[in-house]
Amino acid sequence: MTQQRVQSATPSPSGAVREHADAASAGKTPRTERGRKTMRAILDAAALEFGERGFHEASISGITRRAGVALGSFYTYFDSKDAVFRALVRDMSDQVRDHVAPGIRAAPNQLAAEHAGLRDFIAFVRGHKELYRIIDEAEFVDPDSFRLHYATTADRIAARLKAAAARGEVRGDVSEVHAWALMGINVFLGLRYGVWEQDRSPAEVADVIADLLATGIAPR
After folding, report:
1. What DSSP character marks residue 69?
2. Is-contact 6 29, C-beta < 8 A?
3. How far, CA to CA in Å, does 178 sit from each of 22, 144, 163, 181?
4. Is the dihedral of CA 113, 154, 15, 127 positive or negative?
5. Rounded Cα gap, residues 203 and 118, in angstroms
6. What is the C-alpha to C-alpha distance for residues 196 and 120, in angstroms, rounded to an integer?
7. CB 220: neighbour CB atoms within 10 A?
């Protein structure tokens, strides 16, 4: 039953070295373990470069220096700075999904799953603060990737909620609106308690929202 609850949030089977069919530029997907590790190093370096300098100030040479690879290695997998940025947005979205999936999967019910997802998301953000700058810039650099990031996240939440409704764990009329609202809560709490300040633990913040989901904000 737990596996069914989070089927849409199951992590990629490739584990630490994540492999995407569409991460590299067209026709440049790595075919060897060494190639996958090189592309992983480039994506990790791109996250730092774009996160610190922004898209327009970031450079391919800066990415390769950070990754410790030759310039030619970059072009083995990516055609341009735009291409690696698009791949990075997808990759970071997948990293978030994969990081929160185990806690969601292990939760005994849907309210506990949402608690675990928020807790683990805030914890992830604290170690990857560049996530917000990169996703925000995607709205202007690559609007399709920006929209896809949020749309797919909301779809996963909606699928979880509908499955939970079928099991009687949440109200029966959950919809896309509820999914986007939950995502908005998570996004802005991640910004406040993951990026701006860390004055409350991820678990404490998740406790507050779990109570909100269970009881609402009407007087008790």
Report:
1. -
2. no
3. 30, 23, 14, 5
4. negative
5. 8
6. 17
7. 5
Which residues, at least 6 apart from 27, have a Cβ–Cβ distance to it below 8 Å?
none
Number of alpha carbons in the 13 Å side-chain half-sphere of residue 145: 24
What are the tens digits of pLDDT across the range 156-192? 999 999 999 999 999 999 999 999 999 999 999 999 9
Alpha carbon separation from 136 to 4, 150, 173, 220 (Å, rounded): 32, 11, 31, 38
Burial of 12 (0-12, 13-18, 19+ CB in 10 A): middle
pTM for the structure as a whole: 0.85
The residue behind tokens 């099991």 is 167
Q: How far apart are CA 117 and CA 126, in angstroms?
A: 14
Q: Residue type at 44?
A: D
Pull the structure tokens for residue 106: 């292990």
Enter the tokens of residue 41.
Answer: 């190093």
Can you give the pLDDT at residue 220? 82
Q: Give the pLDDT band (50/70/90) at residue 27.
A: low
Residues 6+ apart with CB under 8 A from 14: 36
